[in-house]
Prior knowledge:
Layout: H1 3-25, H2 42-45, H3 52-59, H4 66-84, H5 86-93, H6 102-109, H7 116-128, H8 133-146, H9 151-161, H10 167-178, H11 191-197, E1 237-240, H12 251-255, E2 259-264, H13 276-292, E3 296-300, H14 304-307, E4 313-317, H15 323-335, E5 338-342, H16 345-351, H17 358-367
Parallel strand pairs: 1-2, 1-4, 2-3, 4-5
Bound molecules: flavin-adenine dinucleotide.
Amino acid sequence: xxxxxxxxxxxDNFIFDHLNSYHQLRNYDYGIENRTNVSQISKYTSHRILYxxxxxxxxxxxxxxxxxxxxxxxxxxxxxxxxNYKSIWFEYINFKENSNNSYLISSAMNGKTGIDxxxxxxxxxxxxxxxHNHARMWFASIWIFTLGLPWQLGARLFMKHLxxxxxxxNTLSWRWVxxxxxxxxxxxxxxxxxxxxxxxxxxxxxxSISSKINIIKHSQHQSNKLPVQRSxxxxxxxxxxxxxxxxxxxxxxxxxxxxxxxxxxxxxxNEFELSENVSQFKRGLIDKINKLIPNSKVLKLTDxxxxxxxxxxIDVIYPGIGHNLDSINKFANQNxxxxxxxxxxxxxxxxxxxxxxFYKFKTLFYRLNxx
Length: 371
Ligand SMILES: Cc1cc2nc3c(=O)[nH]c(=O)nc-3n(C[C@H](O)[C@H](O)[C@H](O)COP(=O)(O)OP(=O)(O)OC[C@H]3O[C@@H](n4cnc5c(N)ncnc54)[C@H](O)[C@@H]3O)c2cc1C
């Protein structure tokens, strides 16, 4: 069974057994032993082993698909929103912590806050590399509004440990909790809500919401121009990354090149280092994909230079705003190489409608029958 069959099996089993009750049960976090109320496919969607638009297509024939489809749309929306407001990403990665909070930060990162649920989630995050969506919301709210810590550090901690770590969903969800997204309403976790949706699994720890709600400053971001698709191929080399590995229906594309390089070990500084579990998971996925593309080779970015000698223009499957894009752009600048990005038609279409709120996007998505 290849990795695509494995991922589709997980999705199909979920659809068959639990799609009907998803809208009623999805908000419950019953703990790691009982996760059947959610699909846990995110480690595949974030690497595009499962392609969002294929999932929506697959769901069309089911009755109670609405809530689940909406969640997939959130993923598409966040990606598109970040494409429209790239400066949000740069502001996030350039954030430097200079407060004297190091003791509190270290207690939070090591799960030693004394807040039972929060400390449990830290352990779960580091060991299981997954958190339920509601736990992510409570966690981020406690991090920001109870502990008073910068959201950017929480977002980096998530990216380090989540198998599904995703530049857009993660950065923008943290901003949403902080009250920095379009509705400007912070998400405030409450003890009653946590108790209800965790079925009283945690010691009853009071969560105080601090006055720090008011002090999250953020700049206004102007939307940027969206990219357009140019013609390809422009060289005999194609480059791809771990966050778009949907290779189904792409054999014609791959066959247009003599070599497909899958880049791994993208160097990012200490503040954005991935945990060993996450790195290992990505290595495993890349190796599996490598075996499925006959003319592919796995390369480190540091070895790309020698493999590209003599090329002044290369084609790259667009990896979306995030570290992969930053790294390849930096490489191209340093080596005076022109990059031609290959976009997906569905992405480009959706991004035109993701520059304001989610509900507007969702309404238009259905009305315009975007796939
Ligand atoms: C603070 C915070 C950080 C997050 N960071 C990430 C991240 O780095 N990567 C990531 O993929 N998701 C992130 N999410 C969104 C969401 O929590 C996860 O996608 C979801 O929990 C994954 O579990 P699942 O596959 O069982 O979800 P299900 O409930 O089964 O949903 C199915 C799929 O829909 C999509 N989806 C569901 N909820 C959301 C959502 N709120 N936003 C975007 N897509 C969604 C995902 O692709 C998910 O796999 C974050 C949410 C919050 C509040």
